């Protein structure tokens, strides 16, 4: 792929995805990594110093008015070749889990970050994705052409929910799954691949210290899986190793 935009790259999975991409034998020509505060993203800055193809984009993704500027900056860097992949990774998980501890503020904030942001950023980046797709008309649906990858979670699967709770997080990811399916239908004519992806339970600040998976090998596996996505995966829900998950 020529270019990819990944959100939420100051730490955790986002930072791991950036590392996996720049370490590829043939890394993307442009890796755009967003963070809310560039000064606090020290490890991301160090990576950018060692990799000229890494561009740090400072933005609060909940500020929807800032999206036009972000898109313009990407368009200028890619020399109007568009954006091959939008990887909506940024997300939050509130501490309140059970119904008696759930509050409206947590639900609203989680839905805004985990669902509304990916939808609105997809909308804003659509002209860039269309450009990339049009320039690669010989390719079928793939990340090499144009794609939106939404970082979901198996906790958003209604069928797999056997433990309840996690109202804000579960509903935000289930809603994101629904949005991903709609995107896959609406953007099919433009040959833009859309997939929901479960990264696994990874040992990050959000995942916690008891998570069984480590960031580096898992993010490397995620990139390998994403690179293999094709038309058969469009509108689907898959985990880090490529296994299909139920809605």
Automatic annotation (TrEMBL):
- Cite a single Pfam family from the UniProt record: adh_short
Q: Which InterPro entries match?
A: Fungal_SecMetab_SDRs, NAD(P)-bd_dom_sf, SDR_fam
Q: Which UniProt keywords apply?
A: NADP, Oxidoreductase
For whether the record's keyword set contains NADP, the answer is yes
Q: Which family does it belong to?
A: Belongs to the short-chain dehydrogenases/reductases (SDR) family.
What is the recorded name of this protein?
A: C-signal isoform X2
Q: Which gene encodes it?
A: LOC101896187
